[in-house]
Every structure is written in C-alpha cells, then in structure tokens.
Amino acid sequence: MNIAGIGIDAVNIQRFEKAADEKGSRFLNKIFTPNELEYAETKKAYYIHMAGKFAAKEAVKKALPDGAKIGLAWSDIEILNDGDGKPYVRLHGEARNIQEEFGLSDIVVSISHTKDIAVSNAMVVKHGA
Questions:
Q1: Chain center to CA of 85
Q2: How sure is the predictor about 66, in pLDDT bands with cuts at 50, 70 and 90?
Q3: Which of 7, 8, 11, 9 is nearest to 117 (CA)?
C-alpha cells in the first residue's frame, strides 16, 4: 500500500459546542457543508457528531500532501456517511486539486468519541497502491 500521508486530530466537545453556541449558525455554515449539517440534524448527540466531523476535517487536512500548509476552505473537505453510517471523504475546490495533482486515490477516515473528546484519523493513499 502506498500511503501518501496520515493525520490525526482531537476536539474537546464542550469547547466546540460553546464556540458553536456563541457564534451561531454562521460558525457552523462556515465549517460544514449543507450535506454535513443535514445529516447531523438526524443525530441525538448533535454536537458530539459535529465535533467528530470537525476532527475528521482537520485530520484529512494534515494527511494531504501540502494540505496543512495551504489555507483550504473548511467546505473543501466534506465528511459524509454511507448507508451504514461509516464516514467517508469527498473533496472539493483546492483540496480536490491537491488530490489530482498528487495522484491520490483514496482517503480513509475513522471517527470516535467519548462524552468529552472527539477524535479522528485519516490516511491518504496514492494511485497504484
């Protein structure tokens, strides 16, 4: 397997919730896509879920070649869920350009949480792996 990068991030859920409450919907709309927000509305533990997606976006950014060096828009990295609830990544804009430039085939993410912390890791795989 040809791994192009790995990344990890952890988010304090209480701090994330406080920031979202203080800054309102403008904060959430800046970070998350409409698809991400719509899916989260179906969850009982809304802020835990969104903190996990935020951690996943950060982990993906760190895993992308040059990703941590460039100012990617939050919406360039979209964390969605398949029919079984498993998270997957869809890239847009500059993040998509990085994927094409470096010949990246897959980005795998995992998200987990306790009541206090959401954590995610990401692994980027190159074509031909």
A1: 15
A2: confident
A3: 11
